[in-house]
Write a structure and sequence with these properties.
About 55% of the residues lie in helices and about 20% in strands. The protein has about 200 residues and is α+β, with helices and mostly antiparallel strands.
Amino acid sequence: MSINFFQQWINYRNAKSIVLVGILAILGSILVACSEEVTTEEMVEQETMVEQEMAVEATAVVVEVAEEVSKTIVDIAVEDGRFTTLVAALQAAELDSVLAGEGPFTVFAPTDDAFAKLPEGTVASLLETIPALKDILLYHVVSGNVLAADVVTLESATTLQGQTVSVSVMGDVVKINDSQVIITDIQGSNGTIHVIDTVLLPTAE
């Protein structure tokens, strides 16, 4: 009788242990599931934050590009800082308002260094001789939006001054007459600027 009782007691203890192990296993599964769920939620939250940051950055880039394209070629020249002599000449010749118009225009824009190559006193003299100044400035402008990819296919181009400029390509070097193009395709709302290193001078008539 006592042996049977002892066996029943052992079986009872074993059953409790099995049940306890089962409960612990279930609790462990629940904890793992909760942990995975929290981890998944954290990953989703992080991915969402990254996507939001990327969207903000992309929007900022689009806005910046839109603002840049909304500027006319005159606005760009004024803000750039390398074209102070050109801008002053355009204003003196009252061509700044023309080149701020609808266009489109393509401007071969000489830098301040390009103007500095001219003989001493030339710029000051031109600023006092508006018709000659206008001729020179218009000799730097071509009608239409002519990008660099189009320029290299040309042999010449007719300027708003009436005369033509020659276009030559040797390897990576593109020249307008004897002036080298050093920066291409600065886009404005009404045309394109190509930066050149020498002032273009029309043929005297």
